[in-house]
Structure formats: structure tokens, C-alpha cells
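testing teh design pipeline on a random one, pls ignore if ur not involved
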């Protein structure tokens, strides 16, 4: 179970700040572990989603080739995966159709079901719909918005996936908001707050003076950190 206090701390930062902090506590992750393409954010006013990844791939352009019995078994297994602890969880769905987002896995029904099973939100390259009828407080980053679910079905679940350049393994700690999403290595999660404090202090050395009417390029040159650690 993710400590409630740690969740609150991580939720108090936006995702770009988390990425900046990771450059200090996990510098090797400067060029990977985060999304690199834009999303549609259902409600930018919501606090960031923080939780352990539950994963799946979906398709919608053609019906499943499985039997009805196997389809039901897959659906049950998928929802069991979503419900499995520890929590809170974030659902990460990779749409693998040739036309990504052809049909929406997400709408009024699935947002409520997933929220009821402990998921706080979804990150997907696929589409969502019913955006005015979603479960209360259920967050969403999606590749697009569309009207139909077409032949949407889960292909596989509890597997590594990739969404907008971010590779995710089941159980990874996810932080996401309107800017995108990032994987936080569990071993450095408790170090994020301290790194943010360091970053804020460094940035204040630039931001404070820049607000003074007398600020000029000469002052900026004097303030810049030669190592580039000021922002």
C-alpha cells in the first residue's frame, strides 16, 4: 500500500516538477520514463493522479477472435488485475489498433467500474467518451475523444505497455497531470520532496530578481549557474 502521506506529498507537485526532481535523484532517467506526446486532459483542474500501474492493451477496429467464454474470462481477469492491490492504482492502457482511438474503452461505465475497483485514473493513447458523465474525481489523460466504442476489447493485461513513449511495467509508480505522465522509481519516491525544495531554492534565485523592474541581462548573466542547475 502506498503511504497516504507520500501520496499527498507527490500530489502537491505537478508532473513537470516531478520530472525535474528525478533529474536530481535519478539522473539517468533524464531522457526516458515519461510521455513525449500530447494528451487530451479531461479536467486540468484535478490534482495529479498517483498510483501503481495496472496495464492492458486494447483493440476496437475488429471484434475479438476469441470465443464468448474466453472473452468473458479475459474481461474477468482484467478487472481482477485492476482490483488487485496494493493501491491506489493508475490504469495504463495501450491502444494497439492500426487507427489508434478508433473505439473508446473509456466512458461512463468503465470510469465508474475502475474507480470502484480502486483506480484513480487512466493514462491511454486511445480514446475516451461520455466525458460529462464520468465517475466523480476519476482522472484521465487520453490520446483523443470519440463517440463510439466500436468493437473495443481487452487483448492482454498485466503486461508491459508503452503509451506516448512512456514504457510501463505493472506495479510501476505513476504520476500524471495535464502535462503528461512519468514513472517514479520506487526507490527514490521518498527523495522527491527534498529534491523539489532544492530546485525551488535554485529557481528563486532567478525568478525573484527577474520580477524587479531594474532587472537586466547583466544581472541575469551574473546569476546563471555555470553547471545549469538553476532551473
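output:
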Amino acid at each position: 500500500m502506498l503511504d497516504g502521506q507520500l501520496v499527498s506529498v507527490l500530489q502537491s507537485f505537478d508532473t513537470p516538477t516531478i520530472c525535474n526532481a528525478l533529474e536530481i535523484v535519478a539522473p539517468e532517467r533524464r531522457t526516458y520514463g515519461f510521455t513525449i506526446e500530447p494528451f487530451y486532459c479531461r479536467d486540468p483542474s484535478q490534482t495529479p493522479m498517483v498510483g501503481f500501474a495496472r496495464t492492458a492493451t486494447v483493440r476496437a477496429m475488429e471484434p475479438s477472435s476469441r470465443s464468448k467464454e474466453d472473452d468473458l474470462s479475459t474481461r474477468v481477469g482484467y478487472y481482477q488485475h485492476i482490483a488487485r492491490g496494493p493501491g491506489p492504482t493508475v490504469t495504463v492502457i495501450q491502444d494497439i489498433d492500426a487507427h489508434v482511438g478508433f473505439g473508446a474503452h473509456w466512458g461512463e461505465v468503465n470510469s465508474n467500474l475502475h474507480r470502484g475497483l480502486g483506480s484513480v485514473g487512466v493514462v491511454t493513447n486511445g480514446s475516451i467518451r461520455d466525458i460529462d458523465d464520468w465517475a466523480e474525481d476519476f482522472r484521465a489523460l487520453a490520446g483523443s475523444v470519440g463517440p463510439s466504442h466500436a468493437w473495443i476489447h481487452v487483448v492482454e493485461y498485466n503486461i508491459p505497455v508503452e503509451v506516448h513513449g512512456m514504457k510501463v511495467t505493472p506495479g510501476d509508480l505513476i504520476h500524471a497531470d495535464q502535462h503528461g505522465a512519468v514513472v517514479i522509481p520506487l526507490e527514490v519516491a521518498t527523495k522527491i520532496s527534498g529534491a523539489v525544495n532544492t530546485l525551488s531554492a535554485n529557481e528563486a534565485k532567478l525568478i525573484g530578481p527577474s520580477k524587479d523592474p531594474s532587472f537586466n541581462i547583466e544581472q541575469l548573466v551574473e546569476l546563471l549557474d555555470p553547471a545549469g542547475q538553476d532551473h
